[in-house]
Known about the structure:
Residues 172-237 form the HTH luxR-type domain. The chain is an alpha/beta fold. It is built from 10 helices and 5 strands; from the N terminus they run E-H-E-H-E-H-E-H-E-H-H-H-H-H-H.
Amino acid sequence: xxxxxxxxxxxxxxxxxxxxxxxxxxxxxxxxxxxxxxxxxxxxxxxxxxxxxxxxxxxxxxxxxxxxxxxxxxxxxxxxxxxxxxxxxxxxxxxxxxxxxxxxxxxxxxxxxxxxxxxxxxxxxxxxxxxxxxxxxxxxxxxxxxxxxxxxxxxxxxxxxxxxxxxxxxxxxxxxxxxxxxxxxxxxxxxxxxxxxxxxxxxxxxxxxxxxxxxxxxxxxxxxxxxxxxxxxxxxxxxxxxxx
Length: 244
């Protein structure tokens, strides 16, 4: 482990208490290694370890973690199915699900984001990046550059866009009629890979106003994460792969 990969010495910024974590991975050495790393990190508390998706669902209901580290490919109940059930069955607030994967352009990851996971992280990421990712999703922030989510979503929606005939300026798609015009504008910019600050600059409004519009959009559409909002924007046709 290099110095750059070592966990920070002090408590995580802005942490009011320890972040309660559930680790789900069918490989014992990976799971135990992650748990050991997290237990040694300040501001982290491992409340459970699951060897498969079904056990992850049961432990999440029992321990109510803040963040779930979810292996995406597991036998039996997959990480996607487990993510769906954990979020659907959770008592508010639902835990944030951070998917661990070997490939970033992975249909399983896309499915997990669609199911409500907050983001994904490659398994070969160093300890420092892992801890930063956990802190980010726990705080409700974007895990990585929005363009990364956009690239993944585009890769798995491009095929469905081939037959779409909607006029590009026809207004929000029918599935998004609950949104105000400004909310649809914010969602479109976020889905195109802009950060909140960049969207605010484009629309000549404050960053706080962008966050408010995005939060209202997610509430109206029953979404649990920014990544899920990006998926919805593409699947409804608000944004098309390759669009500006």
